[in-house]
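Predict structure. Chain length: 96.
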Amino acid sequence: MKAQDIVIRPIITEKSMTGVANKKYTFEVCQDANKIEIAKAVEELFGVKVQKVNTLNVRGKFRRQGRYEGYTRAWKKAVVTLTEGSKSIEFFESMV
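Prediction complete.
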């Protein structure tokens, strides 16, 4: 898999933006990707050094719209922590 296929999009929420000060960045990633692949993809895409990766599977929530009901899609989230000497990711810095 290519790095663009592994890292799908950044997660921009209040909770994820508080981690930017501690060099923790949150991404939606491919469900088949493991922690090593995610770390290599982030290093390749953004030119930074990754210290650790925490992943979690977000399950789909039950939703109803009138008489139609179903589940939202399930996805995988990765919280990437950068090393102390590593530079920050510019994309997130413009959001803060």
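Summary: The chain has one domain: 3-84.
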